[in-house]
Amino acid sequence: MAYARDGEDYLVVGSLGGADRAPGWLHNLRAEPHVGVQVARDRFPAIATVLERDDDDYHRLWRLMNEHHRGRYDRYQAKTDRLIPLVRLTRL
Fold it and tell me: How far apart are CA 44 and CA 46, in angstroms?
């Protein structure tokens, strides 16, 4: 899964390639935000926070994620009317 970093946190995007529906894993995170994360050989427990447009950091983190992935997420957002959420994964 594509990700970016914001300090110690990891960011992922619930884009499903710009589909009109959210990916299934996003619904799972909303129901149970305690997750296990693995990046390369580093495994750790984390808490997932789904960020929506009204969250203070949403626009800054969207720009960070989009720039890190060469504009991919702006292209996905242009394909759908739903707001594509960001997910912050914070190590516990």
Answer: 6
